[in-house]
Design goal:
It is built from four helices and three strands, in the order αααββαβ. By secondary structure, it is of the alpha+beta class. It has a three-stranded mixed sheet with strand order 1-2-3, with helices on one face. The model has no long low-confidence stretch (mean pLDDT 88).
């Protein structure tokens, strides 16, 4: 018991020296109030440490801290998982639309080389634009016919559908 009291008094003396040093090293009075407040909270914690040990509350506080930090970490991981799932769904939806456009153009003999569908990612998911690169053997008539068909099926204005030769 005597050692505990001596250790507690030693900690208070070291804290007081630390407190004095920190307050003297601050350049001006702007931050004195904030530093004094924070160090005051640390002093309160140092003063109640023996009571916490006596009633074994230090273990309870440590356990609560660990549980809360684990809960917070799980929340962050769940948030990351939700956002990655949402990203995966957007990418899957874009790929599916690209395959639909590709198969439609193959049926129309427009010879698609590259198909890129871009979705807007707001509250409502909609097709922002469709960009298609067709092979050079595709005629201008076929490109216009394909553009008109894509406009009709996906209900997009003409400006959002681009068909290139490449």
């Amino acid at each position: 018991m005597r050692e505990t009291i001596y250790e507690w008094m030693k900690n208070l003396a070291v804290f007081y020296l630390f407190f004095t040093a920190v307050m003297n090293f601050l350049p001006d009075g702007r931050y004195h109030r904030y530093v004094r407040h924070f160090l005051g909270l640390l002093l309160i914690l140092l003063l109640i440490t023996p009571a916490l040990r006596f009633f074994r509350l230090a273990d309870v506080m440590t356990q609560n801290y660990v549980e809360n930090s684990m809960r917070e970490e799980l929340r962050e991981k769940a948030w990351d998982l939700e956002s990655s799932q949402e990203e995966y769904l957007f990418e899957s939806y874009e790929r599916e639309l690209e395959e639909q456009v590709r198969s439609l153009l193959v049926e129309m003999e427009a010879y698609p080389k590259i198909v890129k569908v871009t979705l807007s990612r707001g509250e409502e998911v909609e097709i922002q634009n469709i960009s298609v690169t067709v092979r050079p053997i595709c005629s201008q008539e076929k490109r216009e016919e394909a553009s008109n068909e894509l406009e009709r099926i996906y209900e997009l204005p003409e400006e959002r559908i681009r068909i290139f030769t490449g």
